Amino acid sequence: LEIIKDRIFHQESRPKFFWNTLPGGLMALPEYSTYLNDFPFYYLQQGSSPSEKFTALIWATSPIVSLSQPILKLTQAVSRSQYCTKVSERFLPYPAIGTDAVLSLDEYASLSTSEVDFAFVVWRRFPDRIVGFPMRSHFWDTSKNQWSYTSKWTNEFSMVLTAAAFYHRYYHSLFSNYLPAKLRSFVDRIANCEDILMNFLVSAVTKLPPIKVTQKKHLR
């Protein structure tokens, strides 16, 4: 359908470069942009780099009743980063995100400014991946004959949670417009696992794993 659409609307058709370069034209939605540098996949081919700032989206669900709450310390640490341009709530409308990089944080994330800066520098080397701190693993449990999920610390992992991670803003558009509505409805219904869904989305598009960076303090 996308190919037919490009043939009918020639003025809006995507160039051959989109179709012949991973992840392909089906993953480069023209509704998002027709400019190559707006996508996380083409920086290397274009000889460009992501913007040198990021937008922090902090998902907070608890009321602020004390100045010692973790979210206030987290906000202060993030805002001191030399790369941070804006701190806001998670899931703001797309126009509010003016940077390529999104730093997604849960309110109980515990990061220092140096850890935020380090993760962002790593992300700029790998802008098509999720780069962050808390990792998880999913595996096939033969005893239960089903997929399982674990937070045990091992030498292997398959996911980096968006509770403290950088990713490209384009994935907000893919998450909202590309994923089947049933998947989004499911995570809305259980009010959980949206980070798992985002990981599988990015991995499906890029065919690449996330990147975990280390930290001095663990995410609580």
What is the topology?
Layout: H1 2-8, H2 16-20, H3 43-46, E1 54-59, H4 70-79, E2 84-89, E3 101-106, H5 113-125, E4 131-132, E5 135-141, E6 146-150, E7 159-160, E8 164-168, H6 170-177, H7 181-190, H8 194-206, E9 211-212
Parallel strand pairs: 1-2, 1-3, 4-9
Antiparallel strand pairs: 3-8, 4-8, 5-6, 5-7
Pathway: Protein modification; protein glycosylation
Organism: Micrurus corallinus (Brazilian coral snake)
Protein name: Glycosyl transferase 64 domain-containing protein
Distance between the termini: 45 Å
Number of individual domains: 1
Q: What's the main sheet like?
A: 6 strands, mixed
Give the overall form.
Answer: globular
Q: Strand percentage, roughly?
A: 15-25%
CATH class: Alpha Beta
**Helix-strand topology string:** HHHEHEEHEEEEEHHHE
Q: How many DSSP helices?
A: 8
Number of strands: 9
Assembly type of the shown chains? single chain
CATH architecture: Alpha-Beta Complex
CATH fold call: Spore Coat Polysaccharide Biosynthesis Protein SpsA, Chain A
The CATH H-level superfamily is Spore Coat Polysaccharide Biosynthesis Protein SpsA, Chain A
* Mean pLDDT metric: 80
Low-confidence stretches: 86-93
Helix-strand makeup class: alpha/beta
Strand order of the largest sheet: 2-1-3-8-4-9
Rg, Cα atoms, Å: 18 Å
Helix content: 25-40%
Summarize the structure.
This protein is of the alpha/beta class and 220 residues long. The chain has a single domain (53-212), classed as Spore Coat Polysaccharide Biosynthesis Protein SpsA, Chain A (Alpha-Beta Complex), CATH 3.90.550.10. It is built from 8 helices and 9 strands.
